[in-house]
Design goal:
With 353 residues, the protein is an alpha/beta fold. Helices cover 37% and strands 20% of the residues.
């Protein structure tokens, strides 16, 4: 069976229950633009839920007026992507959750290929579709592209996106493939696995919490996949735009926490100092080029990582299992490949050092 073509998928006669949960924060315009296509999705056994993260715009009134049949969960305060979903999903009963950004345009038949894949292999804990750029539709989009990977020092990248370099989608990554992490922009997750592992680490607030969750899934023996037969288009930067100081801060802080949580002590002894050094180089380079905000964000991220280590670590989500069959990890440095060997495409260096 050709598992790369959505039209070739067999009809699921006993459809599992799928809950598409859109976390909203002041996203009325995105809901107005993209929610109708989500509601029109062809998968039959689905429900659409908007979890509102204490919006201050008129999103809730808009939903009541325009989409009265859409279920709404109201979070009393904004605890970010991680805390917002954790709170909302405690109230959602389904076999699968689809955590969908409000700035995602879905395409016809986008749910079926992923659910069919996950139904055939019950060890898959999470999966993502192919994510293309809404504004430049022939290219992959930053937040996950065609399946997330990670290098030895914890820097994330993806099939179709290395650092800031996006590839044109020519079908080069259209095979179903295991990967290291699935994008939180359109994350299909088995609900039982989500709750088994405690969901997202709420301390992250936003950014890289899905990578941490997928890493914990893999360490617990579950697989992460990308199914390119499902395609969505992502606007990106809807809540925190690229270059935003808070975004930079959260990315650096959370990545350090994630690396600490999931790396064996012996390896961490070498990797953590290397990461600190490279982050400092990046921050100083930005400062010298006039980007004082970036420098201060990285400095604050490192300071708060130490604070987390000293005072907050015990509250974070760790896993005790140590499955070593981890996929989607590149055994080299993407910084080395990108800046020194001038390799810009995923396919140019994966499998090499």
């Amino acid at each position: 069976m050709d598992i790369n073509a959505a039209e070739n998928f067999p009809v699921i006669t006993k459809s599992p229950a799928v809950a598409v949960v859109i976390l909203n924060w002041n996203g009325k315009d995105f809901l107005k633009k993209f929610l109708p296509a989500v509601i029109a999705s062809s998968f039959s056994n689905k429900k659409i839920i908007v979890a509102d993260n204490a919006s201050t715009d008129d999103s809730l009134q808009f939903l009541r007026d325009s989409f009265p049949k859409v279920e709404v969960i109201i979070n009393p305060k904004n605890e970010g992507f991680a805390g917002g979903y954790n709170a909302a999903l405690k109230k959602v009963v389904a076999d699968y959750y689809v955590l969908l950004n409000s700035d995602i345009e879905v395409t016809p038949g986008w749910i079926e290929p992923i659910i069919e894949l996950m139904e055939r292999d019950r060890t898959i804990g999470a999966c993502q579709p192919k994510i293309l750029d809404y504004k430049n539709r022939a290219f992959f989009e930053y937040a996950g592209a065609c399946g997330g990977w990670i290098d030895e020092l914890g820097y994330p990248f993806a099939r179709g996106r290395v650092l800031e370099q996006m590839e044109k989608d020519t079908g080069q990554y259209d095979e179903v493939s295991p990967c290291f992490w699935a994008s939180g922009a359109a994350l299909f997750v088995r609900s039982s696995v989500y709750h088994e592992l405690g969901g997202f680490d709420g301390y992250f607030f936003a950014h890289q919490e899905e990578i941490d969750l997928c890493w914990r899934m893999q360490r617990s023996g579950y697989k992460i996949f990308v199914q390119p037969a499902s395609v969505v288009y992502h606007v990106g930067g809807g809540t925190l735009p690229k270059g935003n100081s808070k975004k930079t801060y959260l990315n650096f802080r959370n990545n350090m926490i994630m690396l600490y949580k999931n790396t064996p002590a012996a390896a961490l002894f070498l990797k953590l100092p290397a990461r600190v050094f490279l982050d400092i180089v990046s921050a100083v380079k930005a400062l010298l080029s006039g980007d004082r905000g970036y420098f201060l964000s990285v400095a604050k991220a490192h300071k708060d990582f130490v604070k987390w280590f000293l005072f907050e670590k015990r509250k974070s989500l760790f896993v005790k299992t140590t499955n070593k069959n981890i996929t989607g990890r590149y055994s080299g440095s993407i910084l080395w490949q990108y800046y020194f060997r001038r390799k810009r495409k995923f396919s140019e260096f994966v499998g090499s050092k």
